[in-house]
Amino acid sequence: MTTLYGYFRSSAAYRVRIALNLKGLDYAQVPVNLVKGEQRFDANLARNPQGLVPVLETDEGVRLAQSLAICEYLDERHPEPALLPADAEGRARVRSLAQLVACEIHPLNNLKVLKYLVHELKLDDDAKLAWYRHWIAEGFTALEARLAGEAATGVFCHGDTPTLADLCLVPQVFNAERFECDLAPYSTIRRITERCRSLKAFAEAAPGEQPDAG
Amino acid sequence: MTTLYGYFRSSAAYRVRIALNLKGLDYAQVPVNLVKGEQRFDANLARNPQGLVPVLETDEGVRLAQSLAICEYLDERHPEPALLPADAEGRARVRSLAQLVACEIHPLNNLKVLKYLVHELKLDDDAKLAWYRHWIAEGFTALEARLAGEAATGVFCHGDTPTLADLCLVPQVFNAERFECDLAPYSTIRRITERCRSLKAFAEAAPGEQPDAG
């Protein structure tokens, strides 16, 4: 049985859940409670020395870390429906949109960073929120400009089927909403997110639908 | 002519330079001075609304952003020598090692973040350095554990030829050295970096060798 070690509110686990659902793959979920620090427990460190989620264990016993690497692996092993376009330029565009979220926005706003801001830098709630919203605004402004301005954008981030870019976008929007970021300026991002959320694969991957949702 | 818009000290541009050199591709370099803020000038924003480097313009006029997406594109269009292994598990491992650097370490330590720490959060030099070194230590500890503990590690991060993982590792080590991080605990990282640096493709991609090096 394919097993996903994750956490309901982890953006990175959320991406993998969407990919598994889109591929129609059965999987078990084992929650790792990030707020309780379970990612640093021995059992999780044995699975992933980085002490992060998600980790995917395939039914062949292969253990994989890093959400984008996991999604590309799933796409290679289970090609339908494809999470990447058929052409090299399209693949580069989709990967660059996914990485705009995964390498530029999300790393600055995840739990371990917010903890550092509060515990090490002694930031108060307002300063922490300002940090969070700053990186959302900077990243989403750029992403909106690309999505609104590039001809390859369709119903989804790239064309008319969901890709790796949508898998990254939707969890990031969920997080931005949680931190009450103003999303009014990003009409293309909102339109695409709404469309994604109307699909069962995305809806069933939402944090509130997971077994460990508080 | 393939053109790389970059900056000599940008880790992300450095990754792309190594990929271009490994592939033996000719390219022109156009420097975008990040310290002077040229990435926010109109000319660069027209190339990339995110206002970042690198951007690669191919001789067919295709314009690509995000260093890992660019490297995978180059690997698909110019398959030899391969930057990814032939098997899906190997590709997932290499991508996850690359993303450990590109999604977990580098985003927290790049110039725009350090500027926010100084200008918005009013951190002094010591606190900024502590931030920098904290994320290097956390990331490199995990990376070292993986590289030292996993059988697939070879002369390089994965086997005995350079991959996307080495392309990310070497620029990150360069940056860690610049900020005088203690690299003594990471013997596998140091061994692999030294081996990479002995190759012409890596040596010629080094920041100090670029036309815009100060």
UniProtKB/TrEMBL annotation, chains A, B:
GO terms for biological process: glutathione metabolic process; L-phenylalanine catabolic process. Residues 87-214 form the GST C-terminal domain. InterPro entries: Glutathione-S-Trfase_C-like (IPR010987), Glutathione-S-Trfase_C_sf (IPR036282), Glutathione_S-Trfase (IPR040079), Glutathione_S-Trfase_N (IPR004045), GST_Zeta (IPR005955), GST_Zeta_C (IPR034330), GST_Zeta_N (IPR034333), Thioredoxin-like_sf (IPR036249). The keyword Thylakoid does not apply. CDD domains: GST_C_Zeta (cd03191), GST_N_Zeta (cd03042). It comes from the Bacteria. Keywords: Isomerase. GO terms for molecular function: glutathione transferase activity; maleylacetoacetate isomerase activity. Residues 1-82 form the GST N-terminal domain. GO terms for cellular component: cytoplasm. Belongs to the GST superfamily. Zeta family. This is Maleylacetoacetate isomerase. The lineage of its organism: Bacteria, Pseudomonadati, Pseudomonadota, Gammaproteobacteria, Oceanospirillales.
